[in-house]
Amino acid sequence: MLAAGTDTALLRFTLGSAHARHKQFAQAVPHLARAVELDPEYSAAWKLYARSLMESGDSEQAGRVLEQGLAVAHRRGDMQAVREMQVWQRKLKR
Fold it and tell me: Between the N and C ends of the chain, which has fewer C-beta atoms within 10 Å?
C-alpha cells in the first residue's frame, strides 16, 4: 500500500504493530512516528510508539513521546492508555 502511494495513520500503526509483535521494535519506530505525525490524536499509536522506543533502548526519546502521548490520551479520555503510559513513565524515571 505504501508503494502504491497510500499513507495513512492506520496503515502506519498496523505496520508498526506487526513489527512490535515480532519484537522488531527498532523497525516499528519509524512507522509509529509517521502514524502520530499523520494523526496527532491517535493515542494507541503514541502508546506503541513509546513502548517501541523503550524496547529499542531510546529512553530519552521514549520519555518525550510518553509526555505527548499522555496528553493526547487524557484529551481523548483513553484512560487505559493513560494508565499504561504512566507505568512506563515511572519505569523510565527509575
Answer: C
